[in-house]
Write a structure and sequence with these properties.
single chain, alpha/beta, Rossmann fold, seven-stranded mixed sheet
Length: 234
Amino acid sequence: MTVAIRCRGIKKTYGNDENKVEALKSTDLDINFGQLTLIVGPSGSGKTTLISIIATILTPDEGELILLDRQMNGLSGNEKALFRCKHIGFVFQSLFLIPSLSIVENVALPLIVAGMHEKLAIVKAMEMLEKVHLAHRANEPPTKLSKGQQQRVAIVRAMINDAEIIICDEPTSSLDHTSGFEIMEFLHTLAKNSTKAVVVVTHDPRIFSYADHIIPMSDGELTMQEAVHEQKLL
Protein backbone atom coordinates (compact mmCIF):
# COMPACT_ATOMS: atom_id res chain seq x y z
CA MET A 1 0.00 0.00 0.00
CA THR A 2 1.35 3.43 -0.97
CA VAL A 3 2.52 5.76 1.78
CA ALA A 4 0.94 9.23 1.71
CA ILE A 5 2.58 10.67 4.84
CA ARG A 6 6.04 9.78 6.13
CA CYS A 7 7.65 11.28 9.24
CA ARG A 8 11.18 10.41 10.28
CA GLY A 9 12.71 11.72 13.49
CA ILE A 10 10.28 14.64 13.72
CA LYS A 11 10.79 16.82 16.81
CA LYS A 12 9.19 20.04 18.05
CA THR A 13 10.05 22.09 21.13
CA TYR A 14 8.40 25.25 22.47
CA GLY A 15 10.06 27.83 24.71
CA ASN A 16 13.68 27.82 25.81
CA ASP A 17 15.94 27.15 28.80
CA GLU A 18 13.90 26.42 31.94
CA ASN A 19 10.61 27.01 30.06
CA LYS A 20 11.37 24.48 27.32
CA VAL A 21 8.55 22.05 26.52
CA GLU A 22 9.26 19.07 24.27
CA ALA A 23 5.87 18.86 22.54
CA LEU A 24 6.94 16.19 20.05
CA LYS A 25 9.80 13.80 20.63
CA SER A 26 11.57 11.93 17.84
CA THR A 27 8.63 10.62 15.81
CA ASP A 28 8.55 8.04 13.03
CA LEU A 29 5.21 7.54 11.31
CA ASP A 30 3.78 6.21 8.04
CA ILE A 31 0.17 6.83 6.98
CA ASN A 32 -1.17 5.12 3.86
CA PHE A 33 -3.61 6.05 1.14
CA GLY A 34 -7.00 4.35 1.36
CA GLN A 35 -7.00 4.16 5.15
CA LEU A 36 -8.60 5.98 8.05
CA THR A 37 -6.00 6.59 10.74
CA LEU A 38 -6.86 7.84 14.23
CA ILE A 39 -4.34 9.72 16.36
CA VAL A 40 -5.54 9.50 19.94
CA GLY A 41 -4.42 10.79 23.30
CA PRO A 42 -5.25 13.22 26.11
CA SER A 43 -4.87 16.99 25.90
CA GLY A 44 -1.21 17.96 25.88
CA SER A 45 -0.06 14.66 24.37
CA GLY A 46 1.24 16.32 21.19
CA LYS A 47 -1.61 15.45 18.80
CA THR A 48 -2.20 19.01 17.62
CA THR A 49 1.51 19.66 17.15
CA LEU A 50 1.86 16.49 15.07
CA ILE A 51 -1.05 17.21 12.73
CA SER A 52 0.02 20.84 12.39
CA ILE A 53 3.42 19.64 11.20
CA ILE A 54 1.84 17.10 8.83
CA ALA A 55 -0.38 19.89 7.46
CA THR A 56 2.76 22.03 6.94
CA ILE A 57 1.34 24.70 9.25
CA LEU A 58 4.20 24.18 11.72
CA THR A 59 7.84 23.49 10.83
CA PRO A 60 9.59 20.77 12.87
CA ASP A 61 12.84 21.58 14.66
CA GLU A 62 14.37 18.33 13.46
CA GLY A 63 13.48 15.41 11.23
CA GLU A 64 12.13 14.69 7.78
CA LEU A 65 8.56 15.11 6.49
CA ILE A 66 7.63 13.57 3.14
CA LEU A 67 4.12 14.09 1.75
CA LEU A 68 2.98 12.45 -1.50
CA ASP A 69 6.62 11.49 -2.18
CA ARG A 70 7.70 15.13 -1.94
CA GLN A 71 10.25 16.34 0.58
CA MET A 72 8.79 19.18 2.68
CA ASN A 73 12.05 20.16 4.37
CA GLY A 74 13.51 23.30 2.87
CA LEU A 75 10.34 24.53 1.18
CA SER A 76 9.59 28.23 1.61
CA GLY A 77 6.44 29.45 3.33
CA ASN A 78 4.86 30.26 -0.03
CA GLU A 79 5.76 26.84 -1.44
CA LYS A 80 4.21 25.13 1.58
CA ALA A 81 1.07 27.25 1.28
CA LEU A 82 0.69 26.30 -2.38
CA PHE A 83 1.22 22.62 -1.61
CA ARG A 84 -1.30 22.80 1.23
CA CYS A 85 -3.88 24.50 -0.99
CA LYS A 86 -3.61 21.77 -3.63
CA HIS A 87 -3.05 18.63 -1.62
CA ILE A 88 -4.23 18.96 2.01
CA GLY A 89 -7.75 19.45 3.33
CA PHE A 90 -7.96 20.46 7.00
CA VAL A 91 -11.16 20.32 9.06
CA PHE A 92 -10.63 22.42 12.18
CA GLN A 93 -12.39 21.61 15.44
CA SER A 94 -14.07 25.03 15.36
CA LEU A 95 -15.08 24.47 11.68
CA PHE A 96 -14.66 28.17 10.77
CA LEU A 97 -17.73 28.32 8.57
CA ILE A 98 -18.46 31.92 7.63
CA PRO A 99 -21.97 32.87 8.83
CA SER A 100 -22.37 35.73 6.34
CA LEU A 101 -21.93 33.32 3.42
CA SER A 102 -24.36 30.67 2.26
CA ILE A 103 -23.49 27.00 2.65
CA VAL A 104 -22.56 26.63 -1.01
CA GLU A 105 -20.45 29.80 -0.88
CA ASN A 106 -18.56 28.41 2.12
CA VAL A 107 -17.78 25.21 0.23
CA ALA A 108 -16.80 27.08 -2.96
CA LEU A 109 -14.53 29.57 -1.18
CA PRO A 110 -11.24 27.58 -1.43
CA LEU A 111 -11.73 27.24 -5.19
CA ILE A 112 -12.41 30.95 -5.60
CA VAL A 113 -9.35 31.83 -3.51
CA ALA A 114 -7.32 29.47 -5.72
CA GLY A 115 -8.43 31.44 -8.79
CA MET A 116 -11.39 29.49 -10.16
CA HIS A 117 -14.25 31.51 -11.67
CA GLU A 118 -17.01 31.93 -9.09
CA LYS A 119 -19.78 30.36 -11.21
CA LEU A 120 -17.70 27.26 -11.89
CA ALA A 121 -16.71 27.04 -8.22
CA ILE A 122 -20.39 27.17 -7.19
CA VAL A 123 -21.24 24.35 -9.61
CA LYS A 124 -18.49 22.16 -8.15
CA ALA A 125 -19.55 23.06 -4.60
CA MET A 126 -23.12 21.99 -5.39
CA GLU A 127 -21.82 18.64 -6.61
CA MET A 128 -20.00 18.16 -3.32
CA LEU A 129 -23.07 19.11 -1.29
CA GLU A 130 -25.11 16.53 -3.19
CA LYS A 131 -22.69 13.84 -1.98
CA VAL A 132 -23.55 14.66 1.63
CA HIS A 133 -27.28 15.21 0.97
CA LEU A 134 -27.21 18.94 1.68
CA ALA A 135 -27.72 20.41 -1.79
CA HIS A 136 -31.28 21.38 -0.87
CA ARG A 137 -29.88 23.61 1.92
CA ALA A 138 -27.21 25.21 -0.30
CA ASN A 139 -28.49 28.79 -0.13
CA GLU A 140 -29.04 28.87 3.62
CA PRO A 141 -26.49 30.20 6.11
CA PRO A 142 -24.55 27.56 8.07
CA THR A 143 -26.19 28.73 11.30
CA LYS A 144 -29.42 27.08 10.10
CA LEU A 145 -27.81 23.64 10.10
CA SER A 146 -27.39 21.12 12.90
CA LYS A 147 -23.91 20.47 14.31
CA GLY A 148 -23.64 17.26 12.29
CA GLN A 149 -24.67 19.01 9.09
CA GLN A 150 -22.17 21.81 9.72
CA GLN A 151 -19.46 19.19 10.17
CA ARG A 152 -20.35 17.65 6.81
CA VAL A 153 -20.13 21.08 5.16
CA ALA A 154 -16.67 21.61 6.68
CA ILE A 155 -15.52 18.20 5.44
CA VAL A 156 -16.66 18.71 1.84
CA ARG A 157 -15.08 22.17 1.90
CA ALA A 158 -11.81 20.46 2.84
CA MET A 159 -12.33 18.04 -0.07
CA ILE A 160 -13.30 20.62 -2.69
CA ASN A 161 -9.78 20.84 -4.19
CA ASP A 162 -9.64 17.03 -4.40
CA ALA A 163 -6.89 16.98 -1.77
CA GLU A 164 -5.18 13.61 -1.33
CA ILE A 165 -4.72 14.13 2.42
CA ILE A 166 -7.68 14.98 4.68
CA ILE A 167 -7.01 15.90 8.33
CA CYS A 168 -9.86 16.27 10.83
CA ASP A 169 -9.37 17.66 14.34
CA GLU A 170 -11.90 16.19 16.81
CA PRO A 171 -14.74 15.84 14.25
CA THR A 172 -17.15 14.21 16.72
CA SER A 173 -16.34 16.18 19.87
CA SER A 174 -19.53 18.26 19.83
CA LEU A 175 -21.81 15.74 18.13
CA ASP A 176 -24.46 13.43 19.50
CA HIS A 177 -24.40 9.66 18.98
CA THR A 178 -26.26 9.66 15.65
CA SER A 179 -24.39 12.60 14.12
CA GLY A 180 -21.05 11.12 15.16
CA PHE A 181 -22.03 7.84 13.50
CA GLU A 182 -22.87 9.65 10.24
CA ILE A 183 -19.61 11.62 10.18
CA MET A 184 -17.40 8.58 10.82
CA GLU A 185 -19.27 6.50 8.23
CA PHE A 186 -18.67 9.29 5.74
CA LEU A 187 -14.95 9.59 6.56
CA HIS A 188 -14.47 5.82 6.47
CA THR A 189 -16.19 5.59 3.08
CA LEU A 190 -14.14 8.54 1.83
CA ALA A 191 -10.89 6.79 2.70
CA LYS A 192 -11.92 3.48 1.15
CA ASN A 193 -13.63 4.67 -2.01
CA SER A 194 -11.39 7.57 -2.99
CA THR A 195 -8.05 6.13 -1.84
CA LYS A 196 -7.36 9.31 0.14
CA ALA A 197 -5.35 9.34 3.35
CA VAL A 198 -7.76 10.39 6.11
CA VAL A 199 -6.29 11.34 9.49
CA VAL A 200 -8.57 11.97 12.46
CA VAL A 201 -7.38 13.36 15.79
CA THR A 202 -9.66 12.36 18.64
CA HIS A 203 -10.04 11.30 22.24
CA ASP A 204 -13.55 9.90 21.60
CA PRO A 205 -13.48 6.10 22.19
CA ARG A 206 -16.84 5.66 20.44
CA ILE A 207 -15.20 6.06 17.04
CA PHE A 208 -12.15 3.84 17.48
CA SER A 209 -13.72 0.93 15.61
CA TYR A 210 -13.97 2.97 12.41
CA ALA A 211 -10.20 3.15 12.08
CA ASP A 212 -7.86 1.02 10.03
CA HIS A 213 -5.12 2.09 12.41
CA ILE A 214 -5.09 3.73 15.83
CA ILE A 215 -1.95 5.60 16.88
CA PRO A 216 -1.93 6.47 20.59
CA MET A 217 0.11 9.45 21.79
CA SER A 218 1.36 10.31 25.25
CA ASP A 219 3.82 13.01 26.36
CA GLY A 220 4.86 13.80 22.79
CA GLU A 221 5.53 10.20 21.80
CA LEU A 222 3.73 7.67 19.62
CA THR A 223 3.15 4.09 20.68
CA MET A 224 2.73 1.16 18.32
CA GLN A 225 0.23 1.58 15.47
CA GLU A 226 -2.72 -0.73 16.03
CA ALA A 227 -4.79 -2.27 13.25
CA VAL A 228 -8.51 -2.34 14.03
CA HIS A 229 -10.94 -4.94 12.76
CA GLU A 230 -13.87 -4.69 15.15
CA GLN A 231 -17.58 -4.21 14.85
CA LYS A 232 -18.60 -0.55 14.93
CA LEU A 233 -19.51 0.62 18.41
CA LEU A 234 -21.41 3.83 17.62
